[in-house]
What does this fold into?
Amino acid sequence: MTEFDPTTHPHRRLNPLTNQHILVSPHRTKRPWLGQIEAAQPSDLPKYDPGCYLCPGNTRAGGKKNDAYESTMVFENDYSAVLPPPGPIAPPSLHPLLTVEPVQGGCDVVCFHPRHDLSLPTLSLPDVEKIIETWMQVYLKRGKETGIQYVQIFENKGAIMGCSNPHPHSQVWSLSTVPTLPANELASLKRYASSTSVASKAPKGPHGHPCLLCEYVHYEFFMPENEGRVVIKNDHWVALVPWWAYWPFEVMVLPYQRHISSLCHLNVAEKTSFADIMSRVTKRYDNLFSCSFAYAMGIHQRPVPPREEGGTLLEDEDDVAHLHVHFEPPLLRSASVRKFCAGFEVMAEHQRDLTPEQAAQRLRDCSEVHYLMRGEGAVLHSQ
Amino acid sequence: MTEFDPTTHPHRRLNPLTNQHILVSPHRTKRPWLGQIEAAQPSDLPKYDPGCYLCPGNTRAGGKKNDAYESTMVFENDYSAVLPPPGPIAPPSLHPLLTVEPVQGGCDVVCFHPRHDLSLPTLSLPDVEKIIETWMQVYLKRGKETGIQYVQIFENKGAIMGCSNPHPHSQVWSLSTVPTLPANELASLKRYASSTSVASKAPKGPHGHPCLLCEYVHYEFFMPENEGRVVIKNDHWVALVPWWAYWPFEVMVLPYQRHISSLCHLNVAEKTSFADIMSRVTKRYDNLFSCSFAYAMGIHQRPVPPREEGGTLLEDEDDVAHLHVHFEPPLLRSASVRKFCAGFEVMAEHQRDLTPEQAAQRLRDCSEVHYLMRGEGAVLHSQ
Ligand SMILES: [Zn+2]
Ligand SMILES: [Zn+2]
It folds into this structure.
């Protein structure tokens, strides 16, 4: 029997948030690296596109006209996946195995900026801060509506993710139910909070209980530099490739100084450094394969904002949530070689070849100067 | 408050096998149908491709030469995701949240037929029976190896699924652990078997306990023809779009006459009619958009075959498994318009627009004469 070597031996890792395993096959990366580094793809998007339904002043599918907006813009999606209340009467179940539950809610679009050609990595820091502020406002507004039990902020970027419009934008879906994945994560956080064997110096969650993500980020934070899975840190936030990462260059961004359960719990300094780390992570992404790096991004936090009393946010059981961002990008080897999720993965278990540690190293090696902003021709910027 | 209408009102359905919900947004299908029916794509694949590593007599990447095989061919994958035992010593856990477990096993390739240009829908019935027989043999052989706890048979078809070689083939991965998804399904089946409130005329599982899938398929089987979710039936099998389907045209194939826990429990008649329904489902798939319909297909059954004593298969707790096939195809509207799994879906919950009932209707409307086998020019067949 040989000693276990995580860079050679097939093994599985557990995602403690979802309780799903990932099969890691690191020996397969010893195959010759077939993927080439694609030539830089200069962005030739116009600053304004008359055919874009998100550009200022243009008319959307539903017939409404966009304002001549100057920073962010929020509107209700013309093809919402859910509809506002009142919903129908819940039907009787046809059979115990055929359950059905009506869902109400709303779907908002949050445009990041009037410029058609920019994105999180190429927007200025004040612009990214403004986006974060807007997410928080929509979260507060929607989360307080009657019957809303969950608010999901997400961005779907790139044609490879099915996003046909490059105009920088995200979506916010508000629902009368807590969806499967965040419900699982919250259940895991709750279980962890009631465990008693945790004795690290990590920050604690509400009532002094241990927090799964406070513990995890604390452990990663104190790994030696240039080892482990941390990509970058700033004063309040860490970006890392989680131990249980599924996508080749999956990243989680989370606060490490204290337990923070939602966007509306952030103080001014934490908000500024949140913008900083989101900008730096996405710059590294774009630089990895010299392309506009496609991803699904989502914010997990308290299902809805806490109640307030006299200007103070009230604590409750949903404060077990620990604010974090998931980046799930499909690219594997170059701007045109993606990972496919098929066969064994959809029938049995998620699988990866490149280890999370190798992915983190490659992201650490990337520059934070955006590839389109280098040298003399570098004029792509919102400032 | 209005009455609930499943073809109009957003709702969620529960998948009782995985305990995950699916958000259904049927009102969105009332948008004008933008997808066109693509022209038939005549298959121009050669019967033999000198550059294909699966064609008879050709040399594979690892340097080995294929036999001049005449029906099916089995060989070990040259780039297996797992390696045969002995594995390394399990390492000490770095932290309770960073668990790691070595995995051993093997990855086999099962070629369906020497002909490069055929596939399940265009192979003859005896050829499909031979494939089923081969799957059973590999399942028996691998499942009896020391340390193997699970055998997954699957097919990954089509470039859109990341499968670069059109030569008809499937894979069988054998593992020293039960993967996440089948482990979840087995847990659901076990829970259901110990529930006491079931009083239908459906077949029962081992020891007379109720079986989730026997109950479900029984319910669907007796829905009025041309309603509900059944696509086709034959003497022993049903193909249906499950109530909780996620992919637009997802299909489950399962036996309905009696509880059958694995391929090696099938009698001769059941095997023949299994080949029949697999052929008919995939013909309908190809005809839906007049193309070679891409999918991930997987067989779920007992993790490994039962022990035998004097020619008799012994019953044990793994017999709660109910043999079934999942087809998970990504196409949505045409041969070139696929569903994307992104944004809200990867961050929160699976979502679909077209209802499972509508999908079943469209598959019922498809012919079982393959679009490439119609009329005079119809020579595409292995017989
Ligand atoms: Zn999360
Ligand atoms: Zn299954």
Q: What stands out?
A: Chain A is about 20% helix and 20% strand. Residues 32-42 of chain A have pLDDT under 50 and may be disordered.
